[in-house]
From TrEMBL:
This is 3-hydroxyacyl-CoA dehydrogenase NAD-binding domain-containing protein. It comes from the Bacteria. The keyword Transport does not apply. Residues 297-473 form the 3-hydroxyacyl-CoA dehydrogenase NAD binding domain. It catalyses: a (3S)-3-hydroxyacyl-CoA + NAD(+) = a 3-oxoacyl-CoA + NADH + H(+). Residues 478-570, 606-692 form the 3-hydroxyacyl-CoA dehydrogenase C-terminal domain. Pathway: Lipid metabolism; fatty acid beta-oxidation.
Amino acid sequence: MAVDYTTRDGVAVLTLNNPPVNGLGLSTRAGIVEGIERAQNDPAVKAIVLTGAGKAFSGGADITEFNTPKATQEPTLPTVIEAVEGSAKPVVAAIHSVAMGGGLELALGAHYRVAAAGAQIALPEVKLGILPGAGGTQRLPRAIGLEASLNMIVSGAPVLSEKLADSGLFDEVVANPAELADTALAFARKVGAQAGAHPKVRDRKIEHPNAAGFIQFARNTVVAIAKHFPAPHKCIDAIEAGVNDGFDKGLAFERECFTALVQTPESRALRHAFFGERAASKIPDVPSDTPVRDITQVAVIGAGTMGGGIAMNFINAGIPVTLLETKQEALERGLATIRKNYEASVKKGKLKPEVMEQRLALLSPTLSYDELKQADLIVEAVFEELGVKEQVFRRLDEVAKPGAILASNTSTLDVDRIAAFTKRPQDVVGMHFFSPANVMKLLEVVRGKETAKDVLATVMKLAKKIKKTAVVSGVCDGFIGNRMIEQYIRQALFMLEEGALPAQVDRAIEKFGFAMGPFRMSDLAGNDIGWAIRKRRYLEHPEMHYSKIADRLCEMGRFGQKTGGGWYDYKAGDRTAYPSSVVNDMIGEYSKETNAQRRKISDEEIVERLVFALVNEGAKILEEGIASKASDIDMVYLTGYGFPLHRGGPMLYADTVGLYNVERAIRRYAARPNGDAWQLAPSIAKLAAEGRGFNDRA
Ligand code: 3H9
């Protein structure tokens, strides 16, 4: 049973017992109703305490049941809450650790609520693309008022129980969580002895001097921030319905919105990201109980932009870092940049000056490899060239203590070759941070042929500590993210040859939802970086067909924002990309020289060619086992490459379009000019034939 029933001195205690977070799946829901009924029928019971075992009161509805028959099978959550609220004997919710979503809605159905300090209270449904569907939009405003509830519901952000102590939500907040059970029992005994009806949140009034004005203000704010998501708007609509039409009509409207939202592609995408993030930390052949190595001291080699950003991650998490450079001047420059970054946060009011100083105090600059002897993890962020990496890793092999993890921040080089520079390849791993490393969420953890399982487990755990989304990639050129982006860029360049211009390509893909199109992105990152990679490609893979149009741009010295011009023109001190007639002429000229027939390319074709290029390469990456699941690829693209969150990542997007349609489009493009870049991944054809997708669970 997912709910335990015991009695103590005239109080029935119903304990939700559905690990890990007491999700309100079917058996838990049925258990609550059964417990409430049992308590009604026991004359010795005067009151009921509803509580949760383990690490939560309740994390809410069981998200894995959404859009399955179980989700709508009675007792549904609204039925459960009705049973709780309708209980003739008073129900006291005893809340610890987490009361979220349906969990908080359940507690709002109780007659009284006692909470332990430190509990996270939230209606986070909006983060899953839905709205609270079991009365949250109706009861929370009646419990804590219109403004506070609307903020909680529209943001989905958790609030600590003690901050809500005087809000009207709780009857008591217990400072010491260990005393929650006894306090709730005593409270239940007290109210159980009282005659008469017990209070219901639904009967309270929503008092506000200008509800219509506040709701309009909220609407204006949400329009600006939630462009691609319907849920925040629906949250406001449902709250407004409750304010204007009363509880019952508001409840019915909320239910209607919930049923519609849970089926939207946006909700599917957000749920996919929720589970994808958690799934990414699980490596199929590395059990979750694999022992990890202690990481209490980190060293970073290289104090450039990347090394400095990497170091900041660790000191932000309270881990001391030794920062090594070869020259005093470079070291000082690196330290100054780190300080400048923190000072910018202090100026914006995001960081207290004393916290900045505490963090900087964790940083020990050095010019000597001998200072790295104590480090448990050493991350190399030096120049991206195998010869340079070789020098560093040979030296590390001499100085690092046994068992230290040696990580390379390489973005393209072969981690197995780097590992072979040492006599301890089992301790070598790739930690590919994305720039700016102190900001970007993504960390690609590159698993070499010999990387030990406990090294992987350690790095994944550490990634959580430094608040990164870590995704494991096998060794291949570009790993998951950059290998895929190369195909995307390749298509973008072919389309310039065939008739498009940079601004049109960027506009089309930005309208699709990308944060930045390929050409604006390339101008920001520096066009010379791609040029260097392509030069290597021409040597290593002469058989591969690339457009040379970007090389032409680089030959003109147009490396991007840093040189005042790239695919676009830039004005000093202004990052706005202005279409460039010089570049557009060059593109037209190039098409002529190569006898390419320029034609009008539709925005739809631009989006398909860019996104399906990612999908096709992603499928190959899965076939080769470079990524172990499709959701890992999606997490890389959502957290590191600006792929639109409301589309859930390239692989989920492909599922949404249908792999049958993806296959047809790829075959169509393969038959056109530059079609040799499209080698259909066999798994797309196979899954399409089986009527399946990459992520059938989502
Ligand atoms: C809702 O309530 C709708 C209602 O309004 C209306 C209904 C009609 N369901 O995050 P963790 C799993 S919508 C299923 O690593 P933490 C999670 O996948 C719901 N599974 O732990 C993971 O599984 P695994 C509104 C869930 O301690 C494991 O639990 N509620 C759910 O860092 C541990 O999770 C939310 O949106 C769930 N609801 O954080 C809350 N929740 O081990 C979403 C968790 O196999 N949950 N799991 O990977 C959270 O924010 C965090 O999980 C929580 C714990 C703060 C609870």
